[in-house]
Amino acid sequence: MPELNKDDPEVQSALEALLQEQYAGLVTKRDELLAENSKQKGKLKELEDRLAEIERAEAEKRAAEETSKVAKVEQSGDVEALKELHKQALEAKDNLIKERDERIKELNANLHRYIGDTRLTEAITAEGGVPEILLPHLRGRVKVDAQGEDFAVQVLGTDGKPLLNKSGDPASIRDLVAEFKANDVFSRVFASDVKAGSGSRSVPGGGNGTAKNPWKKETWNLTEQMIMKADAPEMANAMMAQAGIT
What we know:
The radius of gyration is 28 Å and the shape is elongated. α2 (about 80-125) packs across α3 (about 130-140) and α5 (about 220-230) crosses α6 (about 235-240). It has one domain. The chain has helices at about 10-75, 80-125, 130-140, 175-180, 220-230, 235-240, and strands spanning about 140-145, 150-155, 190-195, 200-205. By secondary structure, it is mainly alpha-helical. The strands form 2 sheets. It has a two-stranded antiparallel sheet. The longest helix is centred in the first third of the chain and has 68 residues, at about 10-75.
């Protein structure tokens, strides 16, 4: 096969058109992911509102039952029974407070994870990566904290301490994603940066335009499969599932 002449204007034009088309595909995928995140957030809010409504109805029902029970005991004049009811009421109150605190803790954890996943997905997509594969590896490297009415996302090192970038400033999520993109194993799930035409502009989506999956028919590669299974088994399993292999 003759070698491709990259200096040929027609070849440059064809490469430029191909790269632009692939870049547009990445942008579309990013927009779809952001729209899906927004949709899921709405569903989460609906579920929380419905749960709160059910909890209020159950609380009102329990209160009505307790009021009726107390009224009957008071009419009977049984002092010991009244003491027992008072004890039960205090225990029920403590249990409700405990349940409420646990529920608030659970909702906060879900909200923090959602915010972290959203920021990570945006950064991964912007770098041409595959969020479905990278998110499980990146989640443990971010910490979300409430700051008034807003939330701050802090990037952590592998030791769990705040990560600093080369300038000595707190690392951003884009810094974290760039670290994974430079990794020999995880770089496989990022689109390449290829210079197009005669200029020096780098167009995302070069090479094959998307991260190669060695289990897919069109990019089947036994060597890559063996390497990935040895170096990154979780990524290998994700790609196999993506290719419909169980």
